[in-house]
Amino acid sequence: MSSLLTPQILLELLLGGISLGGIYALMALALSLALATTHILNVAHGSFMVLGAAASTLLIKYLGLSPVPSLVILVAGFALVGWVFELVCVRPLQGRAPDRILIGSILITFGFALAFEAGLGFYWAKLVDPQPTFSLTLTMPRLTLWGVSLSGTRLVILAFVCLAVLVFHLFLTKTPVGKMARAIAQDYEGALILGVNPRLVSVTIFTVGLLATALSGLFFILATPLGPHDGLRLTLVAMTVIVIGGVGSLPGALLGGIVLGITDVFTAFVFGAVWSPVTYVLVFFVVLLVRPQGLVGIRQG
Amino acid sequence: MARVPGVFRGRRLLAVGVVLIGLVVLPRFLTRDLVTALFFAFALITVALNYDLLGGFLGYLNLGQGTFFGGGAYAVFILTKHMPGVAAAGPLALIGLVVVAVAIIALFAAIVAYPLFRLKGAYFAMATFGLFLLVRQLILNLERLTGGAFGIYLPPGYYVDQRLAYWLMLGVVTLSVAVNYLISQTRLGVGLHAIRESEPAAAAIGIDLFRHKQTALVISVIPSALAGCLFGLHFGYVDLESVLGVDKTLLPVIMAMLGGTGLVLGPIVGGVLIRVIDVSLKNYLTLPIPALGVYGLILMVIGLFMPEGILAGLTRRRRVAPRA
Amino acid sequence: MLEVRQLSVSYGDLRALWDVSFRVSAGELVAIIGPNGAGKTTTLRAILGLIPAAAGEIVFNGRHLNHEPSHRRVREGIALVPEGRRIFPYMSVLENLELAAHATGGSRDLEARLAQAFAVFPILAERRGQLAGTMSGGEQQMLAIGRALMARPRLLMLDEPSLGLAPVVVDRLYQTIRDLRAQGLTILLVEQYVYGALELADRAYVLEIGRITREGEGQELLHDDYVRKTYLVV
Ligand SMILES: Nc1ncnc2c1ncn2[C@@H]1O[C@H](COP(=O)(O)OP(=O)(O)O)[C@@H](O)[C@H]1O
Ligand SMILES: [Mg+2]
Question: N or C, which end of chain C is more exposed by having fewer CB within 10 Å?
């Protein structure tokens, strides 16, 4: 125990855990939607969060752009990257037999993640900073509620998560493409019979999902820095969230993310930050042993 | 299993014998660097062959085979470091420690089989990679036991000399080939094949799915752990990058995939190719990105253009699975 | 309107269809009958491109469809009411219907399409908010047909619509099919309920173990000795 757990610290930890977990949930939701609609496991998913972190650090910290134009550039850029990624790494797999799709997708996206990480780490060290870390600081006043003061940055992160989850929810339930995505996730051939274009769904889900993931990278590093080699670890975190919460389930993703986020901050508080990464894999295995179908149960639309 | 060439029959047996004898006497004619390069290649091909027991025969993608390689190396070094008296007692005692280390890894595999085989497909693959990252992090954190980021160095007295290490590693890789071949000829192999084709069908004819998978995993980790022990003992030290680097767990997968999974020869062909690429990358080319990035690109190319590997592409044995 | 020539389809090593040829002209109601496992569903799946044709041609309104993906074939005007209905149980009735319109580019005249479907099946309008999975089998079949109509098809293919329904419900269903046909819709009806299908059909084909073994006018086949012996006298 490094210090005493006062109510103030407890609340800070909870807020930190929930905002961190919210980001995990968002990232996991994007990953599991892609998995449910295309049967493609994007091992490079976490790398897009790293991409978001790196790109925003570069624009805001090193090139000194102000936040609003940066955000516009980043959103456009991330959407473009997601679209190209779908075209190059996902599209060629369509039409292969299902078991081949899985192996192919792991090879391609794992390969992409490795090449991306190696390239990013190498060139960042060479051109920008020999010790690559991606982080941003937001000068926000602390907010005092009911006598406890809360980190403004954490609240900004939480607000972003809530907004993004809401947008995701509206996208899935209100837009034509969102409805088609849900249909294809529930019954692939049943959706094809209705004339759903799986390519349209695939490209939309990847573009929107990777955009959301990259943006969540920006908000993530307001609180916790990332390095070029964190991508695969983050993908693993997203998969853990899916194992806890089920594939394609929004409430499940939120629950899974928050469980992990809170475990993370409390582990770090009690045992030290080096033990946080261990807890993710342990939670993953424990959930598998206790409830292989996940905590929330199997998929729903 | 028609898929496995009858390597050990008739003329082929002769050919295998000739190749083996050739490899045994080869170090006489090579520089030390080349012998080390071969030693290294044998180690990785061993892990690739072991990987293929699950990846090819069973159809379960194990991205964490390197865990058992590095785990074996660390196990024997930890034993040696914390029981210096035993290790100093002579070569026999050292062999004893290696046996204990391999047994520990086999037991570890038997235990992690329980959570791992609750999973299939992509989740299984990622969980095995997660296990690999977990072991890395544990070794980093448990400094007193493992030396943390610094690693463990043994006094030169324990080093296995180069020729001997070469021969022993040749033995381990030969053992791995034999294991894969023999398993393909036994009931276990038939069971694995049945599981690969369809788990419900395999279960329906009375195959114990979990036992088969667990057995395959345990068998697959033994040569990997042995190779890891030998690898560490030859170089005299272990640290995270030398025996548990991400390349140690990914290169074997790439080798098996490139050559063709489910074929005894696949990982060997892929392994030789990758080693040639690797050596030429490191020695003759200056790269615009680090080697791991190049491997990433190779993986992408395999996935995009030759998902069944070189040998399968040549023999065209596989039939296209029907859409469910 | 639809012409299938020498169609062959395989599932892996298993051949399911051998040189199947038939045609459906505009305004016709054509039935394909045959026992379980004959390849009826496979034929419809191949027409829609859900499974590739190993050989043969599928021509719709003069266009070769073999290399078109499924969603284009649906847009060309082929709608399928699949075996087992395959509605989306966790979506509402309305969402199921809307989905079919969105998928075929009908978001703009959604209301008109809905009105049309509701005119055929008024009960769907009553149940619009209900989760589709909680409806009875007959209602689900109506939803499946209504959903197919949302695509404004030129050819409606029905795969064993009577399966698992009570006789009175089947009667009503067949009345609806008769009405749709009277409105000029071209229909390809696949059935094991041989009597009903042949009575309704202008022409019919018998499919057995992946091959067309007989063809003729509906009434003609209804009195054919072989057909009577094999499919009707039970
Ligand atoms: N997905 C599939 N995989 C393998 N074989 C199949 C598949 N679907 C159908 N079959 C086989 O194809 C043949 C025709 O099936 P089907 O078209 O469903 O017949 P029907 O609709 O006339 O009952 C059957 O022998 C069936 O076993
Ligand atoms: Mg059928």
Answer: C
